[in-house]
Design brief:
The complex is a heterodimer of chains A (about 325) and B (about 260). Chain A has about 325 residues and is α/β, with parallel strands linked by helices. Chain A contains 8 helices and 18 strands. Helices cover about 25% and strands about 30% of the residues of chain A. In chain A, helix 5 packs parallel to helix 8. The model of chain A has no long low-confidence stretch (mean pLDDT about 95). With about 260 residues, chain B is α/β, with parallel strands linked by helices. Chain B contains 6 helices and 13 strands. Chain B has a 9-stranded mixed beta sheet with strand order 9-8-7-10-6-1-4-5-11, sandwiched between helices. A two-stranded antiparallel ribbon of chain B has the order 2-3. The N and C termini of chain B lie far apart (about 60 Å). Classes of the chains: A alpha/beta (about 325), B alpha/beta (about 260).
Chain lengths: ~325, ~260
């Protein structure tokens, strides 16, 4: 099929479009001349950058007044589609809001969803989305069958955001319809965890710790090393689930995708769930006491040893240099 | 307080996954176990019902082959009864069909004050089913719950966000998805395991629930190609002799990062 009309689920943060949004727009404009950004909120501050990355039109709902995005935005999208603007494909980011909105919309439209993708193409087989499985060792290409809109979500950093020459697009206000009992959930307070240093998914160096650290108190070794290297501390799912560090530190399938210059994995064995989030790093250093640990299979430098011995010496050596 | 927990029975994640050569679907032969992600939902439900002082926890699941061993684990933990939708025609179902089937199963059990699911399964991790179930049932939903309590008819949830968490209040009935680590799942006791063998576990087909199974033919998606990703090669692996930290320093120096 030919793709003539793509929507991108677009998000802003602090008045600017998120990098993930610009990545999806860049890909969308390579597939279709008509690209619409759908914003759940106010788009006026960053509409120009949406246009610069390929959006020719912007739908914006305005403030959601505490409504949860999934139910509200799917209802708004459905009402636009019912009124005649039917996209061939809707691209969603693989994050909380994108996932919830896509799920609700799939039921409203009776359409399947393809999630966790890293690529999309318009082929002789139809619209084909590609997703990595088994820790990224195998790529599965899946074609949508039947009528659009085809709903697909994409992992962060699947595409590289590049500006083009588009001007500021037209902003069309869309209303969120009455949600009835489905709209029974409200955000009553928002809490932001304070972090210092570079953001985990943007840092040039990431130092992550796992279960091999032994206990929560030893995570300070990871923080100290990250700070010395002006990097960001990360974590495996195991120690996030154990409550050692907040979820925002998690690298992996259900956490952040990172692609730093150097990724240091300390006491992390390399579960599939973790590898998916970091194997795109340019260089990987692993320290683990089990020489059979899967992480060594993808590490450029592997140290078979005790993190409690290697990390303090490494930290000391770096301190004497600075 | 009646709670239904949606669970998935999956191949043991400890053994490496493989794709069926003819269908390219994940192989699900052999014994299936309760997805570890679902143990948190079962535990959460048991705790909420205990706090409420009345009601029961019921389990729903879908499988193509009549498998119940994972559901028995949930019953052994303390759930009252189970309903399995088992139908060979469901093999190859997409997430949307799965949600329709589970929503119909929940309705068959008489509905619930609260429906709990994991945020995503450990084998397929599509991650859309809880929210799709809510939409099928016409209910509000709160996904990625990391802390849950019920006060009267109001659900209070700390919902994980990209930068921290949101406090969300929601009217019941509702659907929630819970993150791993939200509670510490109990191990089934010996008595629990023995009792679970006698607990009611009904098996119905998709037809019994008046859901049309789509299966492979009409899943709305078709795998067209499976390829090996470009492999990352292992580099140098050394045993720490007490001086291995020096290798890391040299590695970082070489990249001009220090």
């Amino acid at each position: 099929m030919a793709i003539n009309n793509i929507w991108v689920f677009a998000q802003g943060s602090g008045g600017v479009a998120t990098t993930g949004t610009l990545e999806l727009l860049t890909k969308a404009r390579s597939l279709s001349s008509k690209v619409t950004a759908f914003v759940g909120g106010d788009a006026s501050e960053f509409a120009a950058s949406l246009g610069e990355h390929g959006a020719t039109k912007v739908y914006a709902t305005g403030d959601l007044a505490g409504k949860l995005p999934g139910v509200a935005l799917s209802a708004a999208m459905k009402s636009i589609i019912d009124s005649g603007d039917t996209p061939d494909v809707i691209m969603f980011p693989q994050n909380y809001e994108g996932r919830d909105t896509m799920s609700r919309l799939s039921v409203k439209l009776n359409r399947t969803v393809l999630t966790n993708n890293i690529d999309i193409a318009d082929t002789a087989d139809g619209v084909v989305a590609t997703t990595p499985i088994f820790g990224g060792n195998i790529l599965v290409a899946t074609a949508f069958s039947g009528q659009g809109p085809h709903l697909a979500s994409f992992r962060p950093k699947s595409f590289v955001a590049e500006p083009a020459s588009g001007g500021t697009p037209e902003i069309v206000a869309v209303a969120v319809p009455d949600l009835g009992t489905q709209g029974g959930a409200r955000v009553v307070a928002t809490h932001t965890e304070q972090t210092t240093g570079p953001k985990l998914d943007e840092a040039a160096i990431v130092v992550s710790g796992g279960r091999g650290l032994g206990e929560a108190g030893n995570y300070s070794l990871i923080e100290d090393l990250a700070k010395l290297l002006k990097g960001a501390p990360g974590a495996s799912r195991a120690i996030v689930d154990a409550g050692w560090v907040p979820y925002s530190y998690q690298v992996g399938q259900t956490g952040k995708v990172v692609k730093p210059s150097v990724y240091i994995a300390a006491g992390i064995s390399g579960a599939t769930q973790h590898m998916v989030g970091m194997k795109g790093s340019k260089n990987i250093i692993a320290i683990n006491k089990d020489k059979e640990a899967p992480i060594f299979g993808i590490a450029d430098l592997g140290i078979v040893g005790d993190v409690h011995k290697v990390l303090p010496k490494l930290i000391e050596a770096l301190k004497t240099r600075s | 307080m009646n709670i239904v927990v949606c669970v998935k029975q999956i191949p043991d994640p400890a053994s490496p996954g493989a794709l069926d050569a003819s269908t390219n679907a994940l192989k699900r032969e052999g014994k299936l176990i309760l997805d570890e992600s679902d143990a948190y939902g079962v535990e959460m439900a048991l705790q909420l019902v205990a706090t409420a002082g009345a009601g029961e926890v019921n389990i729903v699941s879908m499988a193509p082959n009549g498998e119940t061993s994972g559901m028995r684990t949930a019953l052994a933990m303390g759930a009252a009864k189970g309903l399995l939708v088992s139908d060979p025609a469901l093999a190859g179902s997409d997430a949307l069909t799965t949600a329709k089937v589970l929503a119909a199963a929940i309705t068959k059990l008489g509905g619930a004050d609260l429906v709990i699911a994991a945020t995503e399964s450990s084998d397929g991790y599509t991650g859309t089913v809880p929210e799709q179930i809510a939409e099928c049932l016409g209910l509000p939903s709160v996904t990625f719950a990391k802390k849950v309590k019920i006060e009267g008819s109001v659900l209070k949830v700390d919902r994980q966000s990209e930068s921290g968490y949101d406090e969300v209040e929601c009217t019941l009935p509702a659907v929630i998805s819970v993150t791993a680590g939200v509670v510490e799942p109990r191990y089934p006791s010996f008595k629990g395991i023995m009792d679970a063998k006698k607990k009611p576990l009904d098996v119905v087909t998709a037809g019994d629930l008046a859901v049309t199974p789509t299966g492979w033919a009409a899943a709305g998606q078709k795998i067209v190609n499976v390829t090996q990703a470009e492999a990352r090669k292992a580099g140098e692996v050394i045993e720490d002799d007490g001086e291995a930290f020096g290798k890391i320093v040299a590695f970082l120096e070489n990249l001009k990062l220090i």
